[in-house]
Amino acid sequence: NAVWRYTPGPMEGWSLLIGRDHFDEAPPEYGTIGVADTDNMPGARSDHHSFIGPAGDLWVIGGSGMQTDIDNGYLGDVWRLELGMAPAWVEVAPSGQAPLQRWGHTAVYWPDFGDAIVFGGYIDEPPYYFGDCWRLHLGDDPSWSLIPTHDGRRYHHAAVYDPVGERMLSVGGVRPADGKANDVWQLTLGE
């Protein structure tokens, strides 16, 4: 649950921005939902996805990691790191039906609408590959909505937002039927 900053140029190197500078399976530190506080901290996690949102803040969605001080599992939480002079985490509680907890998914920021698009992922109880696609509105009242898509179930894939084509491109990953993939899918967002 540490955030590191890379500085290029003559003083090139990594420095700790916020969090712990050593490995531990730290549980989350919850404050008031929707309120930034330097004492807030998402639980330690892996296989989550993050992106820079409309205000230049870092957003983190889901993954696998600490839900409580004794419980390690799949996460469906949403956090935003305000990157001001004193970086502070905010736990975000979007309205609407949320996607199931997952890891190995992707998310891209869609600047034309101030939204994030979340695709795919995995849980292994029972083994389940996700092929669903979700829109997370990042405005003053964050909310989830499901986007109808093809059945492209996968996890550990890569995705980018293409601003020229107004689309999300997803490549590779692991599929349920045949394992590792090298296919490329597009989700047109501008329509």
Strand tally is 16
Order of helices and strands: EEEEEEEEEEEEEEEE
Measure the end-to-end span.
37 Å
Average pLDDT works out at 88
Shape: globular
The percent range for strand residues is: over 45%
Low-confidence stretches: none
Count every helix, treating DSSP H or I runs of 4 or more residues as helices: 0
Question: From the helix content, strand content and strand pairing, which structural class follows?
Answer: mainly beta
Largest β-sheet summary = 5 strands, antiparallel
Helix coverage percent of residues? under 10%
Radius of gyration of CA atoms, rounded to a whole number: 17 Å
Please, could you describe this protein's structure?
This protein has 191 residues and is mainly beta. Helices cover 0% and strands 48% of the residues. It has no helices and 16 strands. The strands form 5 sheets. Strands 3, 4, 5, 6 and 7 form a 5-stranded antiparallel β-sheet that branches. A 4-stranded antiparallel β-sheet has the order 8-9-12-13, with no helix packed on it. The chain has a 3-stranded antiparallel β-sheet with strand order 14-15-16, with no helix packed on it.
Outline the fold blueprint.
Layout: E1 3-7, E2 13-18, E3 45-46, E4 49-52, E5 58-66, E6 72-82, E7 88-92, E8 106-110, E9 115-119, E10 122-124, E11 127-129, E12 133-137, E13 143-147, E14 158-162, E15 167-175, E16 179-188
Antiparallel strand pairs: 1-2, 3-5, 4-5, 5-6, 6-7, 8-9, 9-12, 10-11, 12-13, 14-15, 15-16
